[in-house]
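Design request, tokens follow.
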């Protein structure tokens, strides 16, 4: 794969010299799979009687492979620079069968396919499909009409070679250029040997959008609400549909509380008008047009219940401090009620909505004793008992 990665770098440098209007295919790299791990079977499926179908995952590729009489093996003949593992396509047990494997589903068409083979391969056929729901079992079984594709197949053959290169470890570059292809199937014929594929490289037809880059998220309590703000790195918002704001009381279980449509901005915000009491955790779920998603980091905030505090209490002299904690901003009516139920003082107080606001209250000359402070605005009402000495 190192050889091909060098080609990719050189190709990228060359592409910067070519005007965008001339680029029919972008050929972004989906993956370069060397089969150096994953769950593709290392057991010969024909030892159990075959033919055998199964699913497996690669290492560099995203998604699952479908394999029909194919397995992963290791040999000294592996090509230098491509790793030690490769896929072995077995000699079919019956002439009406074709050994093959199918690559994972991709989402932005297919530009090119690179296959590096081990040994002297026989006939090679490559197929594509635009249908992600095709039945992969018996996909390349033979029929009277075509020795590779059956009559109900949704596959289209895009490449065929009757004899392979004269030497091993030669990169076979196959141009596909299909904007709608979603999968590739690679089939071998009934040769006397078992051809091995040492490396499979797949590139896209169209630009593969890069994941959105979150630059930060904050959550702040103000005026009884929580303002959630997040920023996106310039140029990274490609193929993004929306942002879902999720909230949690424990930082583990999250619930969606709102959605903001993507608008190609660098900064977004959402207001939680009914915040949780106590600690709350917020995160942003970015949703792509194709349904895939990713998450931002988590921001937390602690929202205490609204309350008022009087200090000092007992009150000495004519002044005291009234502290408004987490009250919604607005104009409130302050009443001082005697123990006998008589209103001895009344005034308007402006609350700014900050988490903690201290307001100096000056009382008229009143008798010593027990009093009740009442602070209210609309349906919101707060009381506190005080002693005047």
């Amino acid at each position: 794969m190192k050889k091909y990665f060098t080609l990719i770098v050189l190709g990228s440098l060359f592409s910067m010299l070519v005007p965008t209007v001339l680029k029919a295919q972008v050929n972004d790299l989906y993956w370069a799979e060397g089969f150096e791990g994953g769950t593709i079977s290392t057991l010969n499926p024909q030892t159990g009687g075959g033919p055998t179908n199964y699913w497996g995952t690669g290492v560099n590729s995203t998604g699952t492979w479908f394999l029909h009489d194919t397995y992963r093996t290791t040999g000294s003949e592996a090509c230098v620079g491509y790793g030690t593992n490769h896929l072995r396509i077995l000699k079919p047990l019956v002439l009406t069968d074709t050994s093959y494997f199918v690559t994972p589903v991709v989402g932005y068409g297919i530009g090119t396919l690179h296959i590096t083979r081990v040994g002297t391969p026989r006939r090679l056929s490559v197929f594509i499909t635009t249908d992600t729901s095709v039945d992969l079992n018996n996909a390349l079984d033979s029929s009277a009409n075509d020795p590779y594709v059956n009559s109900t197949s949704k596959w289209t053959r895009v490449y065929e070679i009757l004899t392979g290169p004269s030497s091993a470890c030669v990169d076979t570059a196959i141009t596909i250029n299909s904007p709608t292809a979603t999968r590739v199937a690679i089939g071998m014929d009934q040769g006397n040997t078992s051809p091995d594929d040492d490396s499979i490289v797949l590139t896209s037809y169209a630009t593969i959008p890069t994941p959105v880059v979150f630059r930060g998220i904050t959550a702040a309590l103000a005026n009884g609400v929580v303002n959630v703000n997040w920023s996106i790195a310039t140029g990274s918002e490609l193929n993004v549909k929306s942002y879902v704001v999720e909230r949690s009381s424990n930082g583990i279980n999250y619930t969606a509380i709102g959605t903001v449509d993507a608008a190609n901005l660098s900064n977004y915000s959402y207001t939680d008008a009914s915040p949780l009491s106590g600690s709350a955790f917020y995160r942003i779920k970015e949703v792509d047009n194709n349904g895939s998603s990713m998450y931002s980091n988590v921001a937390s905030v602690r929202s205490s219940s609204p309350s008022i505090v009087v200090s000092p209490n007992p009150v000495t002299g004519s002044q005291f401090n009234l502290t408004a904690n987490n009250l919604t901003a607005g104009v409130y009516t302050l009443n001082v009620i005697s123990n006998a139920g008589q209103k001895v003082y009344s005034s308007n107080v402006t609350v700014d909505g900050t988490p903690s606001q201290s307001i100096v209250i000056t009382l008229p000359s009143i008798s010593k004793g027990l009093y009740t402070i009442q602070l209210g605005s609309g349906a919101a009402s707060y009381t506190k008992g005080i002693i005047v000495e």
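Comment from the thread starter after seeing the answer: thanks! The chain has three domains: 2-203, 214-303, 307-388.
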